[in-house]
Write a structure and sequence with these properties.
seven-stranded mixed β-sheet; globular; three-stranded antiparallel β-sheet; single chain; Aspartate Aminotransferase, domain 1; 14 strands; 15% strand
Length: 395
C-alpha cells in the first residue's frame, strides 16, 4: 500500500506494558480513591480485600487458594516465591523468552541452586514441555510477553505431581483460560491485561504451596518484603495470613487500588473472563487474517497453537528486507515504529529490546478490535514507503 490511510485508531496505545486503559476510561474513574487514609484502616483493608475477591471471582480461582497483593509488580511476586520456596527439591526451569531467562539466571546465578535442569528455546519457539518433570519444582511463564509464545494447555503437568508448578502468568491471566488445578503458584500484575497502573503484584498460592512455605526453611536470608511466614509461640512456622486478607507487606498506592477496582468492575460488566478471552482472541484473529494475505509480514511464532493473543509478535519476511545488512534492517524497523508514533496511530509497537527485531502489538482485552483493524493499513503503508525509499536509494 502506497496510499496513506485516512482512518486512525481511536486509541493508538498498543504497548505491552503498561497496557491500554479500558475503553472509556478517564481520570474521573478514580474520584472515589481512598487518598490520605491508611491502607491499614478499616476502609483501606476493605478496598484491598475487594481487589483480592474481585480477581477470585473474575478468574474463577479456587476458594482454598490464597490471594495476596505484593510489592514490585509481577517481578516482585516471582522473586518472593523463588527465594522463599526453591531448594527443597530439584528445579526445572522452562524459558523461551526474556523473562523466563531472567528467572533462570536468578535461580542459577543468585540462588545458586545446584540441581537445576534448563529447558530453553529460541524466540518464536516453545520448549519441549514433555521433557519437564513435575515431580520436581517447575518455574515457567505461561505467556512469553517478549516472544509472543504461549503455553497451549496444562496437559503436560501431572495431577499427582510432587513438585510445585510456579507460573509467571502476568500477560496471560484475564486473556487465557488458566488450569488452576495444575498450578501451585501464579503471579501477575495490574498493568497488563486489565490495563491497571504499575508497581503492584498479585500472588496466588495453592494449598500445596502454603504447605511448602510452612514446612521448608531455605538456607538463605530473606529480605522483609519476601517473608510470607512467621514463627508462632510454639515454634511452628505459619503463613502470614493477613497478607492474603488485604494487609499488604508494604504501603500500596490507594490510587492504583481504585484503578484496579475500576478495571475489575468493567470486566464484570462485559461478562467476566469469557468475554475478556473472546476480546483478546478476536484481536489475534484480526491480525492473523491480515498476516495471511500479506507479502511482507509474518508471526514470529510459526506454530499457530502457541501464538499469544496478548503480546502479538511479528517479523518481516519480505526477501528484499531480509537480504539487507542487519544494521539496515534495524534502522528500517526503527523508522517504521517512529512513523507509527509520529502519525499517532500506534504507540510503542517495537519488539522488546532483547527480542529479534520486529513489531509487537498488544491485543489484550482493553484494546478495541476496531483499533487493531485501523492500525494494520498504516503498517502496510509505512513498510511500503520505507521499502520504496530503500530501493530508490540503492538505484
Amino acid at each position: 500500500m502506497t496510499t496513506k490511510p485516512t482512518v486512525k485508531p481511536n486509541n493508538p496505545m498498543f504497548s505491552s506494558g503498561p497496557c491500554a486503559k479500558r475503553p472509556g476510561w478517564s481520570v474521573d474513574a478514580l474520584s472515589a480513591a481512598l487518598l490520605g487514609r491508611s491502607h491499614r484502616s478499616g476502609p483501606g483493608k476493605k478496598r484491598l480485600q475487594a481487589v483480592i475477591e474481585g480477581h477470585r471471582k473474575l478468574l474463577n480461582i479456587p476458594a482454598d487458594y490464597k490471594i495476596g497483593i505484593v510489592p514490585a509488580s509481577d517481578t516482585g511476586a516471582v522473586e518472593m516465591v523463588m527465594w522463599s520456596m526453591l531448594g527443597e527439591r530439584g528445579v526445572d526451569i522452562v524459558a523461551w523468552e526474556s523473562f523466563g531467562m531472567e528467572w533462570l539466571k536468578d535461580v542459577t546465578g543468585q540462588l545458586k541452586l545446584k540441581d537445576v535442569r534448563e529447558f530453553t528455546a529460541d524466540y518464536g519457539q516453545l520448549s519441549d514441555l514433555s521433557q519437564v518433570d513435575t515431580d520436581r519444582d517447575v518455574v515457567f511463564t505461561w505467556n512469553g510477553t517478549t516472544s509472543g509464545v504461549r503455553v497451549p494447555n496444562g496437559d503436560w503437568i501431572k495431577a499427582d505431581r510432587k513438585g510445585l508448578t510456579i507460573c509467571d502468568a502476568t500477560s496471560a491471566v484475564c486473556a487465557m483460560d488458566m488450569p488452576w488445578d495444575k498450578l501451585d503458584v501464579i503471579t501477575w500484575s495490574w498493568q497488563k491485561v486489565l490495563g491497571g497502573e504499575a508497581a503492584h503484584g498479585m500472588l496466588v498460592l495453592s494449598p500445596r504451596a502454603v504447605a511448602r512455605l510452612e514446612s521448608y526453611k531455605p538456607d538463605r536470608p530473606l529480605p522483609k518484603i519476601f517473608r510470607m511466614t512467621k514463627k508462632e509461640k510454639d515454634g511452628s512456622i505459619k503463613l502470614q495470613a493477613d497478607i492474603f486478607e488485604g494487609a499488604t507487606i508494604n504501603t500500596p498506592s490507594m490510587l492504583c487500588v481504585e484503578d484496579c477496582l475500576d478495571a475489575l468492575k468493567w470486566a464484570d460488566g462485559l461478562g467476566g473472563l469469557s468475554a475478556l478471552i473472546k476480546r483478546s482472541e478476536s484481536n489475534l484473529a484480526t491480525i492473523a487474517a491480515w498476516v495471511d494475505q500479506s507479502d511482507w509480514i509474518d508471526f514470529l511464532p510459526e506454530r499457530k497453537e502457541i501464538r499469544s493473543c496478548t503480546s502479538i509478535c511479528l517479523k518481516v519476511k519480505d526477501p528484499w528486507f531480509t537480504s539487507q545488512p542487519q544494521d539496515a534492517q534495524d534502522a528500517m524497523l526503527k523508522t517504521l515504529v517512529k512513523m507509527m508514533d509520529d502519525e499517532n496511530v500506534g504507540k510503542d509497537i517495537g519488539s522488546y529490546r532483547d527480542a529479534p527485531g520486529g513489531i509487537r502489538i498488544w491485543g489484550g482485552a482493553t484494546v478495541e478490535n476496531a483499533d487493531i483493524a485501523a492500525l494494520l493499513p498504516w503498517l502496510d503503508y509505512a513498510y511500503a514507503t520505507i521499502k520504496a525509499q530503500g530501493a530508490k536509494a540503492a538505484a
